[in-house]
Design goal:
Layout (H helix, E strand, L loop, with lengths): L1 H25 L31 H13 L3 H38 L4 H32 L2 H26 L16
Length: 191
């Protein structure tokens, strides 16, 4: 149950970053070639940072590098952008309702008059709305994958595998143990 709650919180955090990125992208954009706001990771995040996320930041470099390495065509950029716009349109009311519920909950806390029953109702509604947004975000990921060619998907898979390997090695380093110790490989107490 704890892992599921952590997953929900993680997805919501990612979506919140997407909202910030989109609001940033909606500001006056400098002249230049248009680019998709949602290709940051063709697989991992439903709301990647926009191209102009920051001069010299590692996000900008990584974004352009990823586009080049994947070989995303202009047509694919348009398709992915359209998918992201559709996601934002489909989730607009849900996201607005979610913000209202969070505001209502915060107001309750700030007033110091906490109604436990009302708080429980708000929490239930928030969980439902977050679940609805998460379903759409996962659909967006699947739809973005469908835009990629088999070769591009293979590259993404290679990057994901390398990232998982690096994370595993980093975890092994921090734990100071052997690969099988506490890492789900038959040597730890959680196996």
């Amino acid at each position: 149950m704890h892992k599921r709650a952590l997953l929900v919180v993680s997805v919501i955090a990612i979506l919140a970053l997407g909202v910030v990125a989109v609001s940033y992208a909606a500001q006056d954009k400098p002249a230049g070639p248009p680019g998709p706001p949602a290709v940051q990771s063709a697989v991992s995040h439903p709301a990647g940072p926009p191209e102009q996320f920051g001069e010299g930041s590692h996000h900008r470099h990584g974004f352009h590098s990823m586009l080049k390495k994947l070989g995303i065509t202009d047509d694919q950029k348009k398709q992915i952008r359209a998918l992201y716009v559709g996601f934002r349109d489909r989730t607009r009311k849900t996201r607005t309702d979610l913000m209202s519920l969070k505001d209502e909950k915060k107001t309750m806390f700030l007033s110091g008059k906490i109604d436990q029953q009302k708080l429980a109702q708000l929490d239930d509604q928030i969980v439902k709305l977050k679940t609805d947004v998460m379903k759409e975000a996962l659909k967006l990921k699947r739809d973005r994958l469908a835009v990629l060619t088999p070769e591009q998907i293979e590259r993404v898979a290679d990057w994901k595998a390398a990232k998982a390997f690096r994370a595993r090695m980093k975890g092994m380093h921090h734990r100071g143990g052997m690969p099988g110790k506490g890492m789900g490989m038959g040597g730890g107490p959680e196996d």
